[in-house]
Structures are given as C-alpha cells and as structure tokens.
Amino acid sequence: MGKNYYITTPIYYPSAKPHMGHAYSSILADFFARFKRIQGFNVFFLTGTDEHGQKIQRAAKEKNKDPQSFCDEISENFRKLSKTLNLSNNDFIRTTESRHLKSASHLWDKLENNKEIYLSKYSGWYSVSDEAFYAENEIQELDGKKIATNSGSEVEWVEEESYFFRLSKWEKPLLDFYKKNPKFILPESRKNEVISFVKSGLKDLSVSRKSFSWGIKVPSNNDHVIYVWLDALTNYISALNYPNQNDILYKNFWPADLHLIGKDILRFHAVYWPAFLLASNIAPPKRVYGHGWILSGDEKMSKSKGNILDPIEVIDKYGIDPLRYYLIKEVSFGNDGNISKEKLENCINSDLANNYGNLCQRVISFIEKNSSFKVPKIDKFSEDDLNVLNKFQQNYKNLISYIDNQNVNSYVSFIVDNLFAANKYFNDQEPWKKKSDLKRLNTINYVSLELIRKLSILLYPIIPSSALKSLNIFGIKENEIDFNSIVNNESLIPNSKLLKIGILFKKVENND
Fold first, then answer.
1. Segment 153-208, tens digit of pLDDT
2. Residue-number span of the structural domain to which 402 is assigned
C-alpha cells in the first residue's frame, strides 16, 4: 500500500484552446509521476477536462453548437495536448462521462443525507469566467465594470434559489486539519493565504444553480444543477470508481498524494474540497500544491486579453523536451514565470546541446574509437573517480526529499551541477593522453559512461525522450529505468556492446 502514488493535474476548463499554463501544470505533474515510477512506485496519474457550467453553455451558444458537441470537440484538443506533451497519464477524465455523473450524484446525496446541504436563496456577485462567488470586499470597480480583484474577471449580480453547503460549520475543523497536516498546502506562502481566508470567517457556500441547465442535475431536485466546483472536484475520486470504496483503484490510491494546481484555484482545492470530503466522511488529499502562473509579458494569460501563448507553436519550433526542460528548470516552482525566446534558446544551446548532448557524444565517440565500442573493464577507482561517482549515492535521500516536497529547483540544480562536473572530469582526466596506460584509460571511460547513465536516469522525468535515447546506449529500456540504481557505481557489464547515439539536441542558430 505504501508504494502507491496518486497525482492529479487540475481538470481543464475547455471553453477555449489550451495555452502554456495548461502545458505547465501537465508537464510538472508528469515530471513527478515519472520520477515516482522509476523510484519503484505504482503511480496513477490523472488529467482531464471540466465540461459543465454557464461559461461552457455560453461559449457553445456563441459557436451555434449544443454544449455536448462543443465539449467533445474542445476536450479532444486537451487529449491531443497530453500526447504532444508526452504525458504518462493513466487516465483522462471528462465530467460529462457517466462514471463521473454517478460519482458526483452520490457525493451530493451523501452531503444531503448528512444534513450538510439546505435550500435557500442566493444573492451576490458571481464570475461566469471563474465559475466562482465573490464577497463584496473581493470586488472593485474598473471602467464602469465590477471586477474580482483576485482574478481580474468581470462579475455579475445573481439572485436565485440555491442549495447551500454548510461551509461555516467547517471553519474550525479545517483550521484544525491544517494544523495537524502542516504540509497539506504548499508552498508555505499559499498556506498562509488559505489560513488567513478561513480565519476571516467562512460563509455557507451556494452549491447549485437554476439560471442555466448545462450540468449534473441535483438528484433530489432537477430544477437545479450542481455548482460546477462541487461537480468538478469530484473528478479526483470519480476516476477511482467512487462510490465503490472497495474498488482496487480507490483502495490503492485515495487519498491522493498530490493535487497539482494553479494558484488561482487554490481556494477551491484547499478550502471547499477538504470541507466537502470531511462532511462526507472521506479523507482529504494529502497535499495541494498551488504553483504560479506562466505569464505573457507581465500578465496572466487569458482569452479575453488575447495574450495566449500556444504550446504547440513552441513545440513545433523547438521540440517537446526543450520546452519541458525550460519550464521545469527556468521557472522557479511555486512562483510566477514567463517564457522567453532568448532564455529558451540559451537553455537548448547551453544546457542541452553543450552540456548534456556534448557529454554523451564525446564519450561515446571516444569509446567507439578506443574501446571497441564496448563497456570497458574497470581496474580500480581513483579518488577523482569516486569524487564524481559518489555524489549520487551521497545525495540519494536528498533527491527523493526534493521530489516529495516539490523542491523542483534543487533537483534540477543537482543535475546541472553534476553535468558540469562530468564534463570537467572527462576534460581533466584527458583519456586521449592515457592510451599507453590501458587500465587507466578503461577506468576513465567506464566512469564517464556511469556518469551518463546516472545523469540520464535523473533527467528522464524532465526530458523523457532524449534521456531514453541516452539510456538506449546501454540497452536500457523505459520499463527498466531504476532511480535506485544511481547508488551503484558498477552497474554496467564489462565487454557488453554499446549502441550508437545520434545528435540529441541541435543548437539553435540565432538569425535575428
């Protein structure tokens, strides 16, 4: 049971085509999922689309399509994006699927049976764009329009009959839960925001709407549809076949280890979602991580601002692994970041082509000419050899800790530092001058191959296709990649044949 790991992206709202923010969340989730798999965990990685609500209904109407056809078309763009991003997700859920309808309806029934839901009237500010309710102190007037200060989205006044969830009742239990689970919300700054919001006082939450019809009907009253966030959040357990809590997926993977989300939807995941679950006698997830935005210039990307960065265009020009590497390395995880053509090209040329690709090609080319293209036999390791090799064994637990605490930047820094160290080792040892000392020559070559193997294993979660090409030199297949083997300095079998490697990364020529 302890070797299972469940990670989710937010399920994306398909009112428009995917943008770089969607790609960022998905790539980061894939990075964690791939690492946990090579660490030996049974991983369940979920992504998908959230397809109900007034925003979808309006967008479909604008296109003269019925909502289901509209969702089928737009959702397919996100499914295709998963393949383009080379995601290793196990499932892709849509909230228009029957399994989800069954799950969300059951959760509603449970809340209603537990007297956590009651019928009343709602009046207040609502953002169709965010599918969120806002208090008076969260609204400002801008150019004659009412705007939510949190998101910049326009709000409208809504008055209608609504079912309410007794959120106010869960104020103290939530604060107690945060105290008992200090790493439930990360990064720390986001946790402080959530605690401050809850301490300021929680009001009961409207959880149904009558003014539109595109959603899951309230089981006990078909005049209402379930509020899009109560509907959407349930996807995380729908994919595990809830309400069958004896199902093997549910038993193995709930509670989720990590909900990876953008900071703008933190309140829904860190306040409403655990409250819904606690009120239903279901354990909350273990962690919610609210990462920053990928900005276009200095602004969050949005359809209304017309500043969408298309990940497909970037991938078509530079390739998927360079984009993955850039987003994981250059964006300080947890903070906002932006994508820059200059920085991306510098990453490709400096880190990927010069540092990693060049190391692989130089070493393999040299061994092809001087060691019959086979793994050479070790004589004995020198102090210089052990200095570079043992860094991996010495940092084995640190690397796991970086991943388990979402310390992405430290993980990447370790790889970059040791790529430089591996290149320096090969240069300093000057194997081309050791041809008269065959034992030392072979040992240098062996150590260089071991460094490529270890570094490629660590790079696999970041740049899976390119790292796999390097590991194929040794005949290592994807299902054989083992993070735990980085502690072994003698894993390569002497005299085993090596395979050729092509150019991993082409340098970007700057024609500006």
1. 899 898 889 999 999 999 999 999 999 999 999 999 999 999 999 999 999 999 99
2. 341-487
127 burial via Cβ count (<10 Å: 0-12, 13-18, 19+): buried
State the distance between the two ends of the chain, measured CA to CA, in whole angstroms.
55
190: three-class secondary structure by DSSP: helix
Closest CA to 492 of 446, 457, 431, 456: 446
pLDDT classification of 136: cutoffs 50, 70, 90: confident
Query: What SS3 class is residue 52?
Result: coil
Q: Strand pairing partners for 291?
A: 262
Beta strand pairing status for 294-296 and 337-338?
Answer: parallel
Q: Are 378 and 490 in contact (CB under 8 A)?
A: yes
Q: What was the pLDDT predicted at 298?
A: 53
User: Residue 367 domain-assigned?
Assistant: yes
pLDDT for position 158: 86
Neighbours of 401 (CB within 10 A): 13
- Please report, for the domain that includes residue 445, its CATH number: 1.10.730.10
- Residue 417: how many other CB atoms lie within 10 Å: 11
* 428 assigned to some structural domain: yes
Closest CA to 108 of 281, 325, 276, 241: 276
Q: Which of 270, 295, 296 is nearest to 284 (CA)?
A: 270
Distance between CA atoms of residues 192 and 8, nearest Å:
23
Q: Does residue 87 sit within a domain?
A: no
CB burial readout 251-273, b (16+ within 10 A) else e: eebbbbbbbbbbbbbbbbbbbbb
* Continuous H helices in 331-432: 341-346, 358-370, 383-394, 396-404, 408-429
Instruction: Say if residues 108 and 215 touch (Cβ distance below 8 Å).
Output: no
Count the Cβ atoms, other than its own, within 10 Å of residue 82. Answer: 20
Domain count, the chain: 1
Residue 440 lies in a domain: yes
Would you list the DSSP string of 254-323?
A: PSPSEEEEEGGGHHIIIIIHHHHHHHTT-PPPS-EEEE-PEEETTEE--TTTT----HHHHHHHH-HHHH
In contact, 378 and 494? CB cutoff 8 Å: yes
301 pLDDT higher than 50: no
Give the Cα separation of 17 and 30 in Å (integer): 20
Residue found by looking up tokens 């920053």 in the block: 292
Residue type, 289: Y
pLDDT at 54: 87
Spatial separation of the C-alpha atoms in residues 43 and 415, rounded to whole Å: 23
- pTM of the complete model: 0.92
